[in-house]
Design a protein that fits this description.
Layout (H helix, E strand, L loop, with lengths): L9 E3 L1 H10 L6 H10 L4 E5 L9 H10 L3 E6 L3 H10 L3 E4 L19 H6 L1
Parallel strand pairs: 1-2, 2-3, 3-4
Helix pairs in contact: 2-3
Pfam families: PdxJ
GO molecular function, one term: pyridoxine 5'-phosphate synthase activity
Organism: Pseudomonas syringae pv. pisi str. 1704B
């Protein structure tokens, strides 16, 4: 099977950060989890920097930018701040996701038709 025909594996490390934040400690470390996933064969790492920074922190994303050997898939809300951050880190992929502060984790999909103007502006 050639690289272009095989299915690529992306590993989302957000819940590692969720555990760290819930514990109020420096562990488990999502950056280490990402490196472990790469070493185990992952083709990319997915990370969602929420506007409220409740899980993944900017520091995590900046460290990942420097150490990842594969692709970063950066999930982000549709905001000017997130766009500016994405332009700064230049990930391989960006995935626009809906965010509301009331949800514990991302639920549902992005209402592209309902937010067309906002998405075009960003």
């Amino acid at each position: 099977m050639t690289h272009s025909t095989r299915i690529l594996l992306g590993v989302n490390i957000d819940h590692v950060a969720t555990l760290r934040q819930a514990r109020g400690t420096r562990y488990p470390d999502p950056v280490k989890a990402a490196l472990d996933a790469e070493e185990a064969g992952a083709d990319g790492i997915t990370v969602h920097l929420r506007e409220d920074r409740r899980h993944i922190q900017e520091r995590d994303v900046l460290l990942l930018k420097d150490v990842l050997q594969t692709r970063m898939n950066f999930e982000m809300g549709v905001t000017e701040d997130m766009l500016a951050f994405a332009e700064r880190i230049r990930p391989a992929h960006i995935c626009l996701v809906p965010e509301t502060r009331q949800e514990l984790t991302t639920e549902g999909g992005l209402d592209v038709a309902g937010q067309e103007g906002r998405i075009k502006a960003v």
